[in-house]
């Protein structure tokens, strides 16, 4: 729906008796989206509390005359009083109505002015009236012709149109005298409403229970947005359960509390009306997270890595090098962690004692094999330890796979280092932005070929084949050679040899017999429970532990989650609000959890891209048993 601001004309102040009533219903046209924000985020200023005002009674005599004439006077409408004055038509908004629409309260932003337009054939005139407290607003139309005219209006605040509407008006021939005797009472209701308008909410919000909202045109709603008054910059989305023209059922996000604003928007980001709730604070209950704790292993803000002795990198003079980003992570049997820094085109190594060093990469983007300190990478991402010794690197910007031996020699393992798509021998194959890596039960190396939208397989013999995906973006399931992928990133292989794939917000599985299946809900969001009903926002890391539990890093939900073998998804750590907070898993916060791995002791190490840094989730040890005295025999 287009919201156009007509040219505003200066109003002519005039006090006139009420001779007829015009009720103008204005439709909502509030823009919720912001040009510099993604569709999933709205401008915080657009979420300032707005609700449909309750009308105050204007001149009782005028409304009573309208009712006596059999005309219904709807609520929540602007009432205008019309009179013909000579050859002009004058419309007036009574002072009581001005006060109602001008008022800016915690539940209504108030309008600054109203534009009223009459169009009939070639005649078009717009009258503008800024609203002034205690004064009527008057609109004058000069010598409008007789006939069936279109009457339209908008109400605005600043450059934002808050409401609009249009309808028809029968104009009679003017006598030209100031005292016209051809008067008749008429009431015109303009009720063209095109965007969602939220009136009210029903019931008391309860944690884990759906919320019922009411209004107009709610069947158009595509987004229900929640914001806490304590942190209006953080916008959350609810899950729409059902909708009709006048009602909407939504499941609110978890962890809301305090004063909460609720707004709606259609597919174009338009909607008006915000309902305000005092949200109950959820009562903490014991969960699986109670037995876990989060701690920081590496703080990228303070850690600096020294170059290995004898290094002669392209960046001379660097005494200490700090991490800028962390992409992939891997660990070797001795307990060393390897971290890919795509921003610096380097691989770092973290010792069990916490010492950080540059393991490979000169720091200059490029492609060069050889000694690790002179080798060049371009935006390395996924890492995987080679059981035979060494480290595989998904060199995403070079569109190939690299290998770093224990002796710190870098070679190109697969790919021509030219972006493309081609199967065959690994030195002739082509990839496009390879990302995540996983090792199959037979020793095959699986590659998430992100920009090619395919899963590739490198056999132990060095043959590159396509395991799944057509190359066309999509989410179609089915046989691997017909199924589609959107943007595969993280990979993990289970004990049966099935390959699990993080495909944006979808969790998918490529079975050993070549069938690709989407296991989670197709829609993005946040929900625990049975996997078929679970929702994720952005899956950035996958890893299985020895008991068959799949750990998942849900980056944009700021949470670390897990999938039990019985198909239940639960959250182990993280909150709605991002942050860097250690402690019990039930209160810990993550910024942007990314790639992860499970250590032999069952603890989980996850990349947190917020700093960047590394976090570890570990089980709390049970307290030692207290000896019980049994007395003397």
Task: Describe the structure in your own words.
The protein has 633 residues and is mostly beta strands. Strands 2-9-8-5-6 form a 5-stranded antiparallel β-sheet, with no helix packed on it. The chain is elongated.
Count of extended strands: 48
Low-pLDDT parts are 1-76, 178-193, 624-633
Class computed from helices, strands and strand pairing: mainly beta
| Biggest pleated-sheet summary | 5 strands, antiparallel
Helix content: under 10%
Mean pLDDT: 77
Global geometry: elongated
**Strand coverage percent:** 35-45%
The main sheet orders its strands as 2-9-8-5-6
Cα-to-Cα separation, first versus last residue: 90 Å
Radius of gyration: 33 Å
Q: How many helical stretches? A: 2
Notable characteristics:
633 residues; mainly beta; five-stranded antiparallel β-sheet; 2 helices; disordered N terminus; disordered C terminus
Write the layout of secondary structure elements.
Blueprint: E1 20-24, E2 27-28, H1 60-68, E3 78-85, E4 88-93, H2 95-102, E5 113-120, E6 123-130, E7 137-141, E8 147-157, E9 160-171, E10 197-202, E11 211-216, E12 223-228, E13 231-237, E14 239-243, E15 247-251, E16 258-265, E17 274-279, E18 292-299, E19 304-305, E20 321-322, E21 329-331, E22 337-341, E23 346-350, E24 356-360, E25 370-371, E26 380-385, E27 391-395, E28 400-404, E29 409-414, E30 424-425, E31 434-439, E32 445-449, E33 454-458, E34 463-468, E35 478-479, E36 488-493, E37 499-503, E38 506-510, E39 515-518, E40 529-530, E41 539-544, E42 550-554, E43 559-563, E44 568-574, E45 583-584, E46 593-598, E47 604-608, E48 613-619
Antiparallel strand pairs: 1-3, 2-9, 3-4, 4-7, 5-6, 5-8, 8-9, 10-11, 11-15, 12-13, 12-16, 14-15, 16-17, 18-45, 18-48, 19-20, 21-22, 22-23, 23-24, 25-29, 26-27, 27-28, 28-29, 30-34, 31-32, 32-33, 33-34, 35-39, 36-37, 37-38, 38-39, 40-44, 41-42, 42-43, 43-44, 46-47, 47-48
